[in-house]
Amino acid sequence: QVQLVESGGGLVQAGGSLRLSCAASASVFSINAMGWYRQATGKQRELVAAITVAGTTNYADSVKGRFTISRDRAKNTVYLQMNSLKPEDTAIYYCYSNLPGLPPSSWGQGTQVTVSA
């Protein structure tokens, strides 16, 4: 079982920033794409951002220009920098990993992000 450990959620006012972290083992980090989904109360889980092993990124339209996903190979960690946060960004954010071309196979425990108006 792949272990992904998330951190960095919290409460912030609209317009503020948060950074989420997702740490993995070196063996997982080196071959898996990684990213973040989020799920707001009463809504379906949606893909927020993803990054391949090579560093290619993909974002949901709703977060483009505000969120940045990155990988730190020295720390085996993926980050999601979230700026200009909006109340509609409020959700539980889940880190995931997947082998190229396959659906997510492992998930983090989830971290709550709450943005107040």
Topology:
Blueprint: E1 5-7, E2 10-13, E3 18-23, H1 26-31, E4 33-39, E5 46-51, E6 57-59, E7 67-72, E8 77-82, E9 91-98, E10 106-107, E11 111-116
**Low-confidence parts, pLDDT < 50 over ≥5 residues?**
none
> Can you count the beta strands?
11
If you average the pLDDT, what whole number results?
A: 95
How far apart lie the N and C ends?
39 Å
The helix/strand order is EEEHEEEEEEEE
Rg, alpha carbons: 13 Å
**Derived structural class:** mainly beta
- Quick one: biggest sheet? 7 strands, mixed
Number of helices: 1
Assess the beta-strand content as a share of residues: over 45%
Structural description of this entry:
It is a single chain. This protein is 5% helix and 49% strand. The longest helix has 6 residues. The model has no long low-confidence stretch (mean pLDDT 95). It is mostly beta strands. The strands form two sheets. Strands 2, 4, 5, 6, 9, 10 and 11 form a seven-stranded mixed sheet that branches. The termini are far apart.
